[in-house]
């Protein structure tokens, strides 16, 4: 018989469900993601490091799990919260069921939770800390939640050593802040030679690699928690063409003198509309971030807004008016619909003199 457990939020909210996966307690920031599919990509996206992720779609696990779709070397989520578990997946690529994957990766998961209620509470009150507590364990959850802080996510998720994905095209040094595998695969398929380096690599070491361009990846947490990476990017400004996404976008803006702030409940999902102001066109995007660039802070910095979130008007992209530098907040390699956002990688190639 499966064990029960509670999800306890910092405001005192308690929901009880069935515990699957790892039978252990977990504390973290409780967030929600709105994707109808992609639960495996969520579990393995390093940008969720340190978080307890709530899936808003009510049925999870229906197509199983396949190693091909892992986005990192392992999962970095603290916990998983779903409504209904499908324990009989049906898909020709499925290698195992979600419950077995959660056990193998030591992830506690609560099922039978009213995820709609959790999502509405977070939307109204903002993201909050929480804890999964297995039945029968004597834990002062509120005291643990009150003390919980998370500041070292990038150090946890970055590559431990430099590696190369060889190719004949432009040579790009990728600062790995918690990059998703599919971003690397998409860039490699477009012809880029990629040298992926740890997040805290120095500017001198990056220059020694003699790249044609610099790419700053997605990643977890508050961008202001990684001042070393900000300083490295600042030292590289003007050296080569630059492209940043997600956390890389925020760090690039901070390095250029702009500011960031925490969103009330973040943008997480695969159905977020973003408007490209230069094209006067809306694209559907995949997003996973809890912070945003302050638009007012861009003024006077030779930076202009290029993309805006349709839902709340927050900054989704910028470019430098004098230097070959641009960035976006969302994940352009992901395909919630057509591969429309790949044009951003093509723009990056052109900045480096590629065709």
Structure write-up:
The chain is of the alpha/beta class and 355 residues long. It is built from 10 helices and 19 strands. β17 (303-309) and β18 (315-320) form a beta hairpin. The strands form 3 sheets. The protein has a 10-stranded mixed β-sheet, with helices on both faces. The chain has a 7-stranded mixed barrel with strand order 1-2-8-6-4-3-9. Helices cover 22% and strands 32% of the residues. The model has no long low-confidence stretch (mean pLDDT 94).
End-to-end span in angstroms? 60 Å
Q: Helix count?
A: 10
CATH-level-2 architecture of the largest domain? 3-Layer(aba) Sandwich
Number of strands: 19
Shape: globular
Looking at the structure, the CATH topology of the largest domain is: Rossmann fold
Which percent bin holds the helix content? Answer: 10-25%
Give the ordered list of helices and strands: EEEHEEEEHEHEHHEEHEHEHEHEEEEEH
Mean pLDDT across all residues, rounded?
94
What does the oligomeric state look like here?
single chain
- How much is the radius of gyration in Å? 20 Å
- Strand arrangement within the widest β-sheet reads 10-12-11-13-14-19-18-17-15-16
CATH class group of the largest domain = Alpha Beta
Q: How many structural domains does the protein architecture include?
A: 2
Q: In what range is the share of β-strand residues? A: 25-35%
Q: Which ranges are low-confidence, i.e. pLDDT below 50, for 5 or more consecutive residues?
A: none
Protein structure class: alpha/beta
**Major sheet description:** 10 strands, mixed
Q: State the fourth-level CATH superfamily of the largest domain.
A: Class I glutamine amidotransferase (GATase) domain
């Amino acid at each position: 018989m499966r064990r029960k457990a509670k999800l306890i939020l910092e405001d005192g909210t308690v929901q009880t469900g069935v515990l699957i996966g790892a039978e252990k307690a977990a504390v973290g920031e409780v967030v929600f993601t709105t994707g109808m599919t992609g639960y495996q990509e969520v579990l393995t996206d390093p940008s969720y490091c340190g978080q307890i992720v709530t899936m808003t779609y009510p049925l999870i696990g229906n197509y199983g799990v396949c190693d091909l779709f892992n986005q990192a070397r392992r999962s970095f989520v603290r916990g998983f919260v779903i409504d209904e578990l499908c324990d009989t997946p049906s898909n020709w690529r499925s290698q195992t069921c979600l419950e077995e994957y959660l056990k193998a990766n030591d992830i506690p998961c609560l099922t039978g939770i009213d995820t709609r209620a959790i999502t509405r509470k977070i939307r109204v009150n903002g993201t909050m800390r929480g804890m999964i507590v297995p039945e029968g364990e004597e834990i002062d959850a509120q005291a643990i939640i009150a003390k919980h802080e998370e500041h070292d996510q990038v150090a946890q998720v970055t590559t431990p050593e430099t590696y190369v994905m060889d190719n004949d095209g432009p040579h790009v040094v990728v600062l790995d802040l918690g990059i998703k595998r599919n971003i690397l695969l998409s860039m490699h398929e477009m012809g880029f030679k990629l040298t992926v380096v740890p997040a805290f690599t120095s500017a001198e070491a990056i220059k020694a690699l003699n790249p044609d361009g610099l790419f700053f990846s997605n990643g977890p947490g508050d961008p202001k928690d990684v001042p070393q990476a900000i300083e490295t990017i600042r030292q590289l400004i003007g050296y080569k063409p630059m492209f940043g996404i997600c956390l890389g976008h925020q760090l690039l803006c901070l390095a250029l003198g702009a500011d960031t702030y925490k969103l009330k409940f973040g943008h997480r999902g695969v159905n977020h509309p973003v408007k490209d102001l230069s094209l006067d066109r809306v694209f559907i995007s995949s997003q996973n971030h809890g912070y945003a660039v302050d638009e007012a802070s861009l003024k006077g910095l030779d930076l202009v807004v290029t993309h805006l979130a349709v839902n709340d008007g927050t900054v989704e992209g910028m470019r430098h008016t004098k230097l070959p530098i641009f960035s976006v907040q969302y994940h352009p390699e992901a395909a919630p619909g057509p591969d429309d956002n790949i044009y951003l990688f093509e723009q990056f190639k052109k900045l480096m003199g590629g065709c």
